[in-house]
Amino acid sequence: MVYLTSANPPPPQTKRPIKVYNFFLLFSSRRRMLVPTRTVSEEAVEKGWLWSVQPLVTWAKWLGIDLSSGQKFSRCFVLYSLFVLLISMSIQLLCLSYVIDNHKEISVTFTIEISYNSDTFSWNTAMDYVNFAVHSLATHVIFLSIFRARWNLLGETFQNFESFLKFSFFDRIRKASILGLVWIILLHTSLLATNLYHHSEYGSSFLILFCSLVSVFSQVYPITAIVLFSVVCYASSNAHQSIRMELNLLKNTTTDGNYYNRLSTLKRRHALVCETVDHINHCFGFFMGISLSFHFVSMITASFYLFGTDKEPGSVLEIGFACTQICNLSLICYPADLIRLKADSVLRKLIRMQLEMEEPLKSLTNAFAEQTSLFFPQINAAGFYPISRKIIPQIVGTTLSYFFILYQFQSAERSDTSVNAGI
Fold first, then answer.
1. What residue segments make up the domains of the chain, in order of their start?
2. Do 317 and 215 form a contact (C-beta atoms < 8 A)?
3. How many CB atoms are closer than 10 A to CB 5?
4. Which three-class secondary structure state does DSSP give residue 219?
5. Is 45:162 a contact under the CB 8 Å cutoff?
């Protein structure tokens, strides 16, 4: 009883609610202070890789191709994808059958000279339609069979960058995706309009016009694959460029205790960046092999359209067709070559840094340079041949060779026709 009526302070546990309450207020105030402040990694995770390629993923879904990450196929979407494939395949096969049976009549719409139309030129036209159909159907089948799983693996590799790359990196990729989508829409709109104008000017039949429009519209799948390839190559080259910029910043700082740790971190990040190239080759290798073969044939047919007859310079359709193939070929070669150039700049920077370093930093820089040289990135077409700007002059040179062969066949055919007419 004496203890209860004394003026002594209450037991310590009676102060605990007050301390807890004060701590809660302190924690709440700190949370309110930290809410407006967002770190770079938080913003990059929220608007990271999936956000940056979302425009192209949404576009692909309209085409019946599901590239969304970590989601199971819905039954309705699978039926929609198969329906689109069957419709595309049946229409193109019917058009091919008509083109092969009437290639002579169709080729006249490109020469616009009724007096003479060689078999060489007419079969060049038929091969052009066949080339377009094979390119489209092969790309469509790959999209629906093996591409999605490989695309998700590639996306997981790029998602690893969200922990250390800034939001500006993913913002640039999103802008590239939007520009690629605009290119797809503008390209097909202009080609469809040019075909309508050309065939209405000549007065082609409805079936010829329909087959021509189907041939153009079917390229939406290969062009989408090319744009996706260009975007991921651009992303990988930017990741190599970020390593180069970090090396510049590291070189300009004082050689303190954190220098070794920061260089080791960059070495690990570089290994992740090089991994993206392996996944790009795994994901797009078959696409690029088929697409480059298509462009090789299409460049030959386009050159023969333009210069294989004695008429005036090519029509708007023929010039637009040739320019389109050159642009799409550039979209394949230049972004792939950009990765090599950025990786080479990283290697050169490390070699220069190595000459200025002392142990133990020199050994680490040397190991970093050896890693860069050993895992030097190279985009290739399913392992058959490397993809770079060097392919363009090779294709141009080979195209000229085949063009002269076709032209000689046509000249010989005309000579035989003249001789037979004289007899």
1. 48-417
2. no
3. 7
4. coil
5. yes
Residue 147 and residue 37: Cα distance in Å, rounded? 39
* DSSP H or E stretch at residue 297: helix 258-307
String of DSSP letters for 310-321: SSSSP-HHHHHH
In the block, tokens 């063009």 appear at: 403
**Amino acid (one-letter) located at 320:** G
Residues 6 or more apart whose CB falls under 8 angstroms from that of 61 comprise: 67, 68, 77
Q: Which residue has the higher pLDDT, 188 or 249?
A: 188
Contact 411, 119 (CB under 8 A): no
CA distances from 279 to 84, 138, 233 (A): 28, 21, 11
Cβ(140)–Cβ(88) under 8 Å?
yes
Tokens of 191: 């080609």
pLDDT at position 114 over 70: no
Q: Residue 247 and residue 266: Cα distance in Å, rounded?
A: 8
Question: Who has greater pLDDT, 395 or 358?
Answer: 395
Alpha carbon distance 237, 268 (integer Å): 17
Distance, in Å, from the CA atom of 250 to the CA atom of 234, rounded to the nearest integer, reads 24
Given a cut of 50, whether residue 41 has pLDDT beyond it is no
**DSSP string for residues in 75-127:** HHHHHHHHHHHHHHHHHHHHHHHHHHHTHHHHHHHHH--SS---HHHHHHHHH
Whether pLDDT at 10 is above 60: no
**CA distances, 160 to each of 12, 51, 53 (Å):** 50, 14, 15
What's the chain's length in residues? Answer: 423
- pTM confidence score: 0.83
What average pLDDT does range 320-341 have in this prediction?
Answer: 90
Q: Between residues 58 and 423, which one has the greater pLDDT?
A: 58
How would you class 239 by CB atoms within 10 Å of its CB: exposed for 0-12, middle for 13-18, buried for 19 or more? buried
Q: How far apart are CA 320 and CA 305, in angstroms?
A: 11
Indicate whether 80 pLDDT > 70.
Answer: yes
In which element (H, E) is residue 198 found? helix 167-202
DSSP state for residue 144 in the 8-state scheme: I
Least confident among 109-113, 237-241, 404-408? 109-113
Q: Which of 131, 136, 138, 184 is nearest to 298 (CA)?
A: 131
pLDDT above 70 for 347: yes
Nearest CA to 170 out of 239, 72, 117, 260 is that of 239
Indicate the average pLDDT of the chain: 80
Residue bearing the bigger pLDDT, 423 or 147? 147
